[in-house]
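Sequence in, structure out.
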Amino acid sequence: MKVGDAEDNSNGQELSLSRGVQRSGGHYCALFAPRDPCLHPEVPTCTRRSVPATQPEQPRGSCRQQVPVAGKLHRGSAATGTTMEFSELIKTATVESVLLSCAGLPAVKGTLCITSHHLLLSSCPGGDAQPGTVELWLLIRNVDAVEKRLAGSSGTITLRCKDLKVLQLEIPGMEECLNIASSIEALSSVDSVMMMYPFFYRPQSLRLEEGWHLFPLERHFQQIASQTSQWRLSHVNQDFTTCPTYPPSVIVPAAVDDDTLRKAARFRHGGRFPILSYYHPKNGTVMLRSSQPLTGPNRKRCREDEMLLGTVLDKGERGFIIDTRSAQAAKQARMTGGGTEPKSSYPQWRRLHRPLERGRPLQESFMKLVEACNDTSATMDRWLSRLESCRWLSHVKAALSTACLAAQCMDREEATVLVHGAEGTDTTLLVTALAQVILDPSCRTLRGFLGLLEREWIEAGHPFHLRCARSASSHARPKQEAPLFLLFLDCVWQLSRQFPFSLEFSERLLLTLFDNAYASAYGTFLCNNEKERCLCKVKENTHSLWAWLNQPEERTKYLNPLYSHNPLVIWPSVEPQSIQLWQGLFFRWIRSSQHLDEAWAEIQRLVESKDPHAKEGVGKRLSRSLSDPAAQTENER
């Protein structure tokens, strides 16, 4: 096998170290727990070198051949230039007799090869495919930290991955060990978006245009327009000059013209003027989102901004501004040009401060939690102490509480809500997206949830490239990294745990999304906003993760077999005893999931048996397995 050709060797997602599989009874079986073929592509290594239908055929050969690293280029840049850029980073392309080990799994010894985007370990000497050969693949972008330890004439490299697994490579030869470590560090640190794997990945089962237009804003607007005429679709940001982090089209009050929007944008941080986030069909209330107003120390005003917010309220009606900063932080922001909406200028609005961490404190909390989870020698008292001190569950509780507040204002108080923090691209989106999952049953379906992610996270301008540049194990000092999207996924998992029948998708989808946000074969989470994605031509040159997930044969793998449509609002418990550690994520590479996988398979079998009492019985047993008393029943309205 030619290593350069390995760049196409993926059936869909980030190649987070999966074992090459051998056919057994007509099925693929993998040593590294088969979480998800989208995350862990199965690379068959039988005699015929056959591959799943979703992968291109791999040529025969040896991974000892020279590495042409770049594979196929599907962009305008010169192939030779790109090849040179990658090849200069690879000091040693192949090493024999490398032993790879991972906690809880048998070690594998073989030939290690490095390409521009992958590590490949083949158990067959020389890398030639033979019957029974095992191949292990790892997307280099998934590497978060490289640690090396030398002992005599050999060395050990520890790879801490962004998906939280930890791998060890025992390499004979001190020079080879240093070269391999240096190569991995260099390749995993490539920051150019257009040099990342999604621009090279070409699965046979997908077309480039698929998935990018599954959730157009126009369709979402039509659903709103069928219920009210008070909103319109504006193209004021068509050229990204009004707001560089908003999409080209936004939903705004019908009574406000584009010129007013442009003036209001100049009064908001980064141009993020108030736009519609959610229309609550039950009572017609709305949720808006924006960034902080630029009132500054002199309490500047903007008539257009006041008019925009006044338009969404009827005479005598009140609205709530949920500020995700503390009152003190908002006051300090005013001294540097930011601030809050003064009561004198916005008399119908009441401000509520619900501080949520978004920067370094949140990143450090994530890092401390992962470090504690990896410490298998800790006593129970020590473990509980570290769990509490990292404060991750406190962040989950705070996020859920704030989202519940926004949902309560709309559903029970029948009041309009505006959510913002400082920049409006982090905790703001966390709250608006979570509130919609709580309020709207359509956002709890698989398709609706993906549409929500597209609308409230990706198009809304969450800076994925900055926030997900590093995961929990990087030795670099946190800069702009922060696991806001992971916090959102954790909160959704808490909802699925408390309401096991109400979400159509399973935990598997949430794990898939987490892995893809940090390292992916798809372009869905690339860049920081729509403007950057347009400049990099992401939609023209990469595949969409949504296209993969929406394939019928893949979609079924992410469905919750217990799902039953629930048209009601779901109100989660946010008591401390109700918030649990997401073990399926934080312990998935530490503890075996075999028993849990078998349990879910049994649930699937019972549900498909058509026994009218099966789902009810399974639900009761599942509820009893949850330690939280609040999860015994669905606390729904």
